[in-house]
Every structure is written in structure tokens, then in C-alpha cells.
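Journal club prep — side note

Before the paper discussion, L.F. wants everyone to see what a predicted structure for a comparable chain looks like in C-alpha cell form. Sequence:
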Amino acid sequence: MPTIERLDALEILDSRGRPTVQATCVLAGGARASASVPSGASTGAAEAVELRDGDRARHRGLGCQRAVANIVGEIQGALARRSFAADAVGQDELDRAMIRLDGTPDKRRLGANALLAVSLAFARAVAIERGVPLYRHFGDLLGEPPRRMPRLTVNLFSGGKHAGGQVAIQDVLVVPMAASTTDASLVATTAVFHAAGAIVQGRYGQRLLRADEGGLAPPCASAEAMIADAVTAIRDAGLEPGRDVALAIDVASSHFYADGRYTLDEATLDGAGMVARMREWVGRYPIISLEDGLAEDDWSHWPALRAAIGGRTAVLG
């Protein structure tokens, strides 16, 4: 049974140049693993709370030294020399112990960034101690051994909070469909990316500037124009939209929703209108995944969205 020998932590910088937390878990048997936590530019109102330092003179208030101190202090004090089973029960017990220690509904006291970093580092350390890859360890936790690798989903175009809001929606991603290996998936993805780069330069006269999560950020006239450009890029790469490469869209519609209305491009839509717009997009373009197609608080229209497009695309919220 894995026993936590000690925990350590560092403040590191993520791909945006913003601080985040890296935790290291060392087990009594010698296994050692580290994990860092992501930090999104776009967050929901009900998400767990990252603990930031608030010192505007350092990293514009976004420092994570308080979260780091909580890991090496209070969390380590509660978990060091404790044993947990190397299965789903043990992982759950560890996570619940930290949640109880935090004592808040949204993990704001110790910081969700601190708790998640420790949870991931522990999972990685246990996988090392078991001598299995992390993905297989997670499959064992679920009781579902992985039968296939997931398809790549790669950011192509960005808008919204990821790119200064030049269009309302947040991300248009490409999903290689026909490729049977990761190598072939990367070949298809890079072909589409370079074709998209040519569109950005030729149509918009813009250098290949990257948004927060690596996507291109052209000044498209509308959200739908950005989706259409992605389809054009697939074709320009010599691939068939929908057959060789499909699209996934992160609408992030909470960011353009207020007082029961969505402001999308030049239109103001109610919930039913937004459902109709999403249905049109799914019918017109090879979209196999639609994330946050409605605002997080627009509960009454989510069933309608799922009924409208759920048979053709994954509806994520």
C-alpha cells in the first residue's frame, strides 16, 4: 500500500507566462513524481477556486506562493506517513482527505490548484510504483482498461478570451478522423495548420500570431467565418472535411450572454435562437463536438440543444 513520504511544491510559469503550481509526491518505496496544474483564461462561475497571492507588485497578483506554502505545510502535515490503497478507493480517500482539510465548498482556503497538483502527483507516483503507464493506471482506477488511444484535438483558430475577443467564440479545433496512428494524425494536423496559416496571411494580411492556447487568431468577420476558414484550410491541405478531419468548437457562450440574451456576431439571440444557430452550424459544417454551446446558467435550453444536435455531435457543458 503506497505511503506518502513527503510532498514538495514549486511556483512555475505556464505557457501563458502566468504562475501555476507544481507538486512533487515522494512515496516511502522510493517512487517520485511531479505534476503541474493548468489554469484557464475562461472559467465558469461554479468552478473550484485557484488560490492566488493577490500581490499586485508580483506577477500582477497572480502568484501562487500561498498555494505552494499550503502544500509543503498544512497538506503535507495531514498526508505525510499516511498510506492509501493503489486503487480507486485509495485515490478517492486521498482526494476526500484534502477536501475535508480545506473545508470550503469551492476549495478556496487551500486552493484548488494546490489540491489538484497533489492529487495528480500522487496518482503519477503510484503508477510509477506499480510499474504501469499513467493512462493504464487511470484505466485501472475506473475498472475500464483502455482499448484505444484518444483522437487528437488540436487548436486551429482562437477567439473570445483566448485571443482578445476579435470573434465571440473561443476555439475552433481540428480532429483527425481517418488517421490510424498518432504520427498520421500529426501529419494531417500540421498540414491543416500550414494551410490555415496561408489563409491568415493571404486573406487577412496577418502574421502567424498565436493566441493563448496556440491557435491562430485572424480578424475574421464573424464566428461562422472562422469556422468556414477552418473547413477551407482542411480542403487546401488536400483533405476531406468530415472524412479525414472534423471540427470541434468551444463556443464559451457564457462570455457573451447577459440578461437572457446572447450577443453573437451582429445578432442578439434568446436561448431558442442560440439553439437554432448551433443546429445550423452542425448541419453546415463537420462539427463532431460542441462545447458550451449555451451559457452555464441557461439551464432551461440545454435539453433543447441536446435534442437538436445530440445525435450528430457530442454536446459538452
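L.F.'s comment for the group: The first strand starts at residue 4 and ends at 13. Keep this in mind when we get to the figures.
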